[in-house]
Design brief:
single chain, alpha/beta, Aldehyde Dehydrogenase, Chain A, domain 1, Aldehyde Dehydrogenase, Chain A, domain 2, seven-stranded mixed beta sheet, six-stranded mixed beta sheet, 22 strands
Length: about 500
């Protein structure tokens, strides 16, 4: 039985059904029963949303209104997120299976995304000016790009939606958001919040649906000037290919297979805390998860034994229970995928150690916290992104081997290094091919620093003022402040230019 009202598109300031009236089921990962139905968008719905966004950009007040006024809207959105944070956390946990204690932290972070970009635009979106020889003034201005197409994933959807929507709106763009089809509830709540905030019609739009239809139509639309995508690597490759025909700007935050390296001199207790939290929080469904654990040989046995103890004590259960640390995976199809990788690990010779899922949870998409012990880098499970509560564990002999193992994957999103030798900490962190690295730290990120990866983990950086490079265009204006000389072509014909016949 459905437990929530049906989800509609939000286009041009109105909640509307799909043009063809189609809906699809949204499934509760804890019970595998329907939560509600969601409007299934297609090209016609994307066309309507893009048209509304373009009209709002070209002829509406959003792009041209005083910055202070636009930022008041952005701050109002932040206030409303704070007001509805408990409901947002509930919807997120219901939709995704993320434990509600963790969903609450994500909601708070989402509000901060809007406050942060209001401040960033006010204080950091500034141009440069150059005086040239007393004759010229050259200066730069940052201008919104136009219609921004934002495609977001199903893991921590609300926080990641706001991560993109906030800078896009704050810099003066209009938005068409295509959220993941497996997690539509909080995207719908964001639309309700923005509607309540009173933004002009067409500035923000949401079209629900599937990547192959709604997502592809958004990427291909000639009036969409940029695409920001967070998700799986092969999908990102396809988006880049399809964006080329209309020369869109693209930002790709893609998959990861991030190493956590523990040297023998590390604070073992803190390294254990980081290793367990970094791969088993958010149900293991996080792109920056430390899904590969590299242990110096001399501490391998001790660390693994203590790791097993931690795994056995992780609280598995109802995502609505505040005590739950690990909930169900978002969808049955994903549950099957993660379990296939565990079977592959067995076939490849890994020693699989897993906690036990408590009785009474059989309906849910539960995968217990799982260690793949005795792995090596030639194994599929050490190379491919599993995106679940599964960690491949392997040993290394020395610093050089740790770096080699860390880099011997196609991904390069995040890395974590644990050592009390800070010279080595800096050395190893910089030697790893990753967009981000943490030394003796869990995965924490200040909003001012860039986020993104290298290799197959993505292209571009968002976050902080780095988002301005993507969500704005830089225009250069040249002004003569004196009377600089201008070559006088065509005023007179010099005698030297006369033909022989004329002479």
């Amino acid at each position: 039985m459905a437990t929530q009202p049906n989800v509609l598109h939000y286009i041009n300031g109105q909640f509307v059904e799909s043009a063809n009236g189609a809906f699809f089921d949204n499934i509760n990962p804890f019970t595998n029963e329907p939560i509600n139905q969601v409007a299934e968008g297609n090209k016609e719905d994307i066309d309507a949303a893009v048209r509304a966004a373009k009209d709002a950009f070209d002829g509406g007040p959003w792009r041209t209104m005083p910055v202070e006024e636009r930022l008041r809207y952005v701050l109002r959105i932040a206030e409303l997120i704070e007001r509805y944070k408990e409901e947002i956390a509930y919807l997120e946990a219901l939709d995704t299976g993320i434990p509600i204690s963790q969903a609450k932290k994500q909601a708070a972070r989402a509000a901060e995304n809007f406050r942060f970009y209001a401040e960033m635009v006010k204080t950091r979106l500034v141009g440069e000016a150059y005086h040239v020889n007393g004759q010229f003034l050259n200066y730069t201005v940052y201008k919104p790009v136009g219609v921004a197409g934002l495609i977001t994933p199903w893991n921590t959807p609300f926080m990641l939606e706001t991560w993109k929507v906030a800078p896009a709106l704050a810099t003066g763009n209009t938005v068409v958001l295509k959220p993941a089809e497996w997690s539509p509830l909080t995207a719908n709540k964001l639309a309700e919040i923005i509607d309540e905030a009173g933004l002009p019609a067409g500035v923000f739009n949401v079209v629900h649906g599937f990547g192959e239809t709604a997502g592809a139509a958004l990427v291909a639309h000639p009036d969409v000037r940029l695409i920001s995508f967070t998700g799986e690597t092969t999908t990102g490759m396809e988006i880049i290919r399809n964006s080329a025909a209309t020369l869109k700007k693209t930002s790709m935050e893609l998959g990861g297979k991030s190493p956590l390296i523990v040297f023998a001199d590390a604070d073992m207790e803190r390294a254990l805390d980081a290793a367990v939290w970094g791969v088993f929080s958010l149900n293991g469904e996080r792109c920056t998860a430390n899904s590969r654990l590299l242990l110096e040989q001399s501490i391998y046995d001790e660390f693994v034994e203590r790791l097993k103890q931690r795994v056995d004590q992780i609280v598995i259960g109802d995502p609505m229970n505040p005590a739950t640390e690990l909930g169900p995976l978002i969808h049955r199809a994903h549950w099957e995928r993660v379990n296939r990788y565990i079977e592959i690990a067995k076939q490849e010779g890994a020693d699989v150690y897993a906690a036990r899922v408590p009785e009474g949870l059989e309906k849910g998409n539960f995968v217990p916290p799982t260690l793949l012990l005795g792995c090596h880098n030639r194994m599929k499970v050490a190379q491919e992104e599993i995106f679940g509560p599964v960690m491949a564990v392997m040993a290394f002999a020395d610093e050089q081997e740790a770096i080699r193992l860390a880099n011997d994957v196609k991904y390069g999103l995040a890395a974590y290094v644990w050592t009390n030798d800070m010279k080595r900490g800096h050395r190893v962190a910089q030697a790893i091919e990753s967009g981000m690295a943490w030394v003796n730290s869990p995965n924490v990120r200040d909003l001012r620093i860039p986020f993104g990866g290298t290799k197959y983990s993505g292209i571009g950086r968002e976050g902080g003022h780095y988002s301005f490079d993507f969500y704005t265009e830089v225009q250069v204006v040249h002004v003569a402040v004196g009377d600089p000389p201008i070559p006088s072509f065509g005023k007179t014909k010099p005698s030297s230019a006369l033909s022989v016949e004329q002479k």
